[in-house]
Structures are given as structure tokens and as C-alpha cells.
Amino acid sequence: MKTVKKRIFIVDDHPMIREGTASVINMQPDMFLCGAVASAAEALAHIPKAKPDVVIVDLSLEGRSGLELIKCLRQHFPKLPVVVYTMHEEAIYAQRAFAAGACVYVTKREASCRLIEALRRAMGDSMPCSSRTKQTATTALPLGQLSDRELEVLELRGQGLTSNHIAAQLHLSRKTVDTHLENIKHKLHLPNSRELLRCAVQWMQSKQALR
Questions:
Q1: pTM score of the predicted model
Q2: Which end of the chain is more exposed for a tag (fewer CB within 10 A), N or C?
Q3: Which CATH superfamily is domain 6-137 in?
Q4: How would CATH label the architecture of 142-210?
């Protein structure tokens, strides 16, 4: 009896990553690529037609973030497994991804065989976990204390955006953004806005170094 191959959909804003991942997936006897897009908006438009069995999502996407996309997928397709495949540190992002609705977390620093294992694990309805250990995902780092929105505000601040620009991009009021910034300073024990900016810039530089 012929085995029915599982349908895999990729959401990643790097063309080379999409192409490389597609090649690895299409080499497998039990799965094939049914679609690949660069943004959350494209994913939400194409996934209903592609009807994937699993979706691979990067956390850094054009426009809406990967975390926001995962939340949308859980809302509209609650039974659709999501595998996160990203350069972001597990200690800070894995628990956020699981809370959003992902079932497996894999970093791009790992061998491609880990991603294939993660896809098969996701299709097997396993409990949420990283490709290594659940303990890794819960490591207590300062940024791990921030909410998803606070981390988003911090990253935009690290990109040089002012409170007004952050408010416009996130469709929030200036007052709400300032409240988030105050909460960030409190949680990270930063004495003033200058130190918050320094922390934000350093964080964004470390993220860019991994990309």
C-alpha cells in the first residue's frame, strides 16, 4: 500500500532558508513541501488552500511576527501543528512559542536532521518541547521576564524607533508604549531610559549576529 506523504508548509523570510529546507523535506519518503512564503500575511492567505499537515514558522518575519502568526494559526486552525525553526535563543523564545501554540522548537544552528525529527514529532501529536530539552526553554534570563508585547517594544526601541513611531507601528497609544517601557525598566532593573536604550541596542545587535 502506498504511503500518503504529509504536506509541509514553510513561513520564512529568507529565500535561501526556504529553498534549503524545501530540498531537505522533499528528499524524505514521508513528506513533501506544499507551500512556502515569506510573511505572516501570505501564510494566512495560502495555508487554507495548501491544506498542510504541519507548518514551519520562523519567528522573524516581514510585518507581523512569527509569534503573532502562531497565535492566529491556533485560533483559525487549532489542530494544525506548528514547528518553530529559528535563530532565536530557546531560553527566551521557546516558552513564548509554546504558549502561542507551537508544538516543537528547533534552532537553525542545529543539523537539518533535527528539523525532520521535529516535523515527525509534531505529526505524532507529542507534547510541546524543544529539539533538545524542555529545561533549556525555561532557563531564567532577564529578557525572559518580559511579556511578548514588552519584548516587541524593546526590540523596536533597539532599532532606533521613538515611542511615537513604536506606537504607530504597533497600533498602540503613546501612553501605552511608555507604560511598556517603564515596565521593561522595572523588570530588567534598568535605572533610566538611556540604559534601556543601551540594553535594547545590544539585544538587537546580538540577534543580528545570529542571522
A1: 0.68
A2: N
A3: Response regulator (3.40.50.2300)
A4: Orthogonal Bundle (1.10)
Q: What angle do CA 53, 149, 142 make, to 5 degrees?
A: 100
Sorted by where each begins, the domain ranges of the chain are 6-137, 142-210
3-state secondary structure the chain: CCCCCEEEEEECCCHHHHHHHHHHHHCCCCEEEEEEECEHHHHHHHHHHHCCCEEEECCCCECCCHHHHHHHHHHHCCCCCEEEEECCCHHHHHHHHHHHCCCEEEECCCCHHHHHHHHHHHHCCCCCEECCCHHHHCCCCHHHHCCHHHHHHHHHHHCCCCHHHHHHHHCCCHHHHHHHHHHHHHHCCCCCHHHHHHHHHHHHHHHHHHC
Tens digit of each residue's pLDDT, the chain (211 residues): 567 899 999 999 999 999 999 999 999 999 999 999 999 999 999 999 999 999 999 998 878 889 999 999 999 999 999 999 998 777 778 888 898 999 999 998 888 888 999 999 898 855 455 554 333 333 334 677 888 899 889 989 988 899 999 999 888 999 999 999 999 999 888 889 988 988 888 877 776 655 5
